[in-house]
Amino acid sequence: MKINLPNQITIARLFLSIILFGCLAFFSASDPQPKLWLLDICTALFLIAALSDALDGYLARKQNEITSFGRILDPFVDKILVCGTFAFLAGDGFVNAQGVLVSDVQGWMLVVILGRELLVTSLRGVTEGGGQSFGANLYGKTKMVLQSATAVTVLVTIAHPDGIFGTPWFTYGRVILLYLTVIVTLLSMFSYLHAARGVLLHMSVSGK
User: Fold this and answer.
1) Does the model's pTM come out above 0.90?
2) 176 exposed, middle or buried (CB, 10 Å; 0-12, 13-18, 19+)?
3) CATH code of the domain containing 95
């Protein structure tokens, strides 16, 4: 199977995500002198991976190269990027020497985000398997933008605690963004449940 340019970009985003996770794994907030410069690298990698999502979608539409493979792969990579990043932010690497989680990303927030993504991925698989298109909608794209903005805000505020990003405006804003992200993530789930209602109804009637 020939892989078109938009899908090649999507695959490159997946490899960028892996490199990002490697950098996050090396960071430890409990070190006497945390490697804050690693978080700047993580921020750059995340931004490139997130922004190129718009590029592959644009090229796919412009060149009329929208494929079922791309419709499945693109949101899959989005989920890997976002869920992986939030998993690290909620992990031990972001707990400082005093036992404080410096990212403010609580475990239950990760569960909500991950649970929603797993549900939508399952709905997409069932719907696409039934021959129906199940691409990302406006609600899903809005959710992705908010999740990305929140992840970048968390990384930047931790990496630069002594500058403008360390002011109360940013630290409190980070918490607000996190809660807003969780709420929007939950709400976006219902639009996908609505989109898959036909397949779900058929499955319930047929007993599958």
Assistant:
1) no
2) exposed
3) 1.20.120.1760
CA dihedral sign of residues 193, 195, 196, 200: positive
Dist CA 183 CA 203 (whole Å):
29
Q: Dihedral sign, CA of 37, 38, 42, 48?
A: positive
pLDDT tens-place string over residues 76-107: 898 899 999 999 999 999 999 999 999 999 99
Chain segment 132-190, per-residue pLDDT in tens: 665 566 777 888 899 999 999 999 999 998 878 778 888 889 999 999 999 999 988 88
CA distances from 174 to 5, 34, 146 (A): 36, 20, 12
Structural domain boundaries enclosing 142: 5-206
